Each structure stands twice: as structure tokens, then as C-alpha cells.
Amino acid sequence: MTTLLILDSQADAYNEFVKNAHLPGLNVLLATDPSGLPEGAALAEVVLAPPGLLIGALPRLTSLRWVQSTWAGVESLLAPELPRNYLLSGVKGVFGTQMAEYTLCYMLAHERQVIQRFDSQRQGAWDHRMPGQLAGKHAVFLGLGSIGGECALRCRQFGMRTSAVTRSGAQTALVDKHFQVENLPQAVSDADYLVMSLPDTPETRHLVDGPVLDALPPHAVIINVGRGRSLDQQALLSAMKAGELAGAVLDVFEHEPLAPGDALWDCPGITITAHTSAVSFVEDIAPLFLANLGRYLAGEQPHHLVDFTRGY
Asked: For 96-272, CATH number?
């Protein structure tokens, strides 16, 4: 008998998917908060949980062998003082559509000047300034995993030119041009949009810094849906205040939530969203988990395992 602990605010909804899968030899425990773990949780060898809740439960999960995260970001579980004697699966191939919609939403808003026209309407002003268009614009993707790849695909459908910057610079059919990360300044030198979807690793921290921002054209817009620490926020503020960039759309930050008095809030040209470019819907995560759970119960390795050393 394998004990599964579902630790999530929507534990009941996840359990419905598990029950409907009719998996044999499974004892399911439910909890919505680590402070209220059910009796027998110490016997759980499989846990489905977001990292934020799991951290508080880890010391009591003495039989743990595999965790399926419900979030794409697992950085909080990689702290060196936390145990690593279990398998950890991330989420892949689930959030691409949501993040592509987010990216295109703000690209279109920028080209069509949606926010400015809304302000003009509130002032009763006939705003006849000319809009732009996405067709022919150049989008550079820093990171071309499942998220960056989906964003690139959607941008090409809008007639945009696309480039990718990756560690290997390997050729794929998803984009028109490929660059290695060492050539990042060259890659962004004619970008209209720089779309960041990087994981949080020592190699990616402040990868987009002052010199990279200087290499961007003054009409460029940055969209960061990856991890906040991959972008030097102070360097971005300096560039925006100096008029060296047209805008930035930030969904992630070095420290979250963003402090009320942070200068980013009031900086003209910066749009802030509260880490909502993609959310973990039960109906999206549950099928991925069940497929992985089936592999685990069959004695096979689950998919999307995280390397604790590399950070993704």
C-alpha cells in the first residue's frame, strides 16, 4: 500500500481526479495546511503539493520518496538546509498557453496603446495617435523551454520575427535565429521585445543587467514571466528613468510580494502584475500528476525530475 498525501488548498478537487483514476494500492490523505497534517502523514511516500506548503511539512514526512510540485517554480525547495533525499518533479508543458496569452496580451496592449487610449477616454480626449502592429516586429526569447517555445510559436503566428538565446544555441524550428547566452547583447541589439522565461539558478541571476539593457534599442519592451532574479531591477529602473527603454512588463520580482514602497510601482512605463501570468489549475495539474503517479507505482521514474544541484 502506497500512502499519498495531497497537501493543497484544493486537496478535495485533486482527490476527485485521483479517485476517478481507480489506481490500486493507494491510501490517500488530505490536508490544506502543513499545520494540520492528518494522522499517518509520516508514512506518506508520495506528496502532491505546492512548494510553499510543502516546506512546512517536510520535517514530519519521514517516509518521503517522491514529490510532485503543483508549481513550475521549485526554488524554495532547493535551499541547502532542506532535505534532498527524495525525487522532486516539476511542472512542464502546462503553463505555456497561459504565459503565451499573457505575453501577447501585453505586446498587443503596447502596440495598440491600450492603456494610453483608456486614459484619453477618461479625459474625454480624441486620441488619434497612430498605433503600431506586431507583424514584422522582432521578439527575442531568453529561454526556450516549454514556456518560451509556446510564446515564440504564438508570436510567429502574428507575423513576428523570432530569435532565441539559450545556453547551447541549438537550432530548433521554433524560432528564426539562435544565439548562445554569451552573445546575449548581440541578440537583443535589434529587439522590439525581450521575453524572459528563465529558471532561477546561479547562472541566470541578473543575467539581464546594465550592459544587456544598454544593448537593447530604446524602443524595446521587456516582458519577464520567468524568475525575478534573472533581471537586475535597479539597472532596469535606471534605464527606464533615463528613457533608454520603451517599457517593461514584470510578473515576477526578486522579492515577492513587491514591497509597497518599491520604486518599481511608480516608474513610468513599467507594468506590474502579481505573479499571475500562469496559475496552477487543478484540471491542468491533475492529469500530469496522475501520469507521473502511474509511472511511480509501476516502479518507473516520474517525468520532469528536478536536479537539486542545477536548480531545474
From this structure: 3.40.50.720
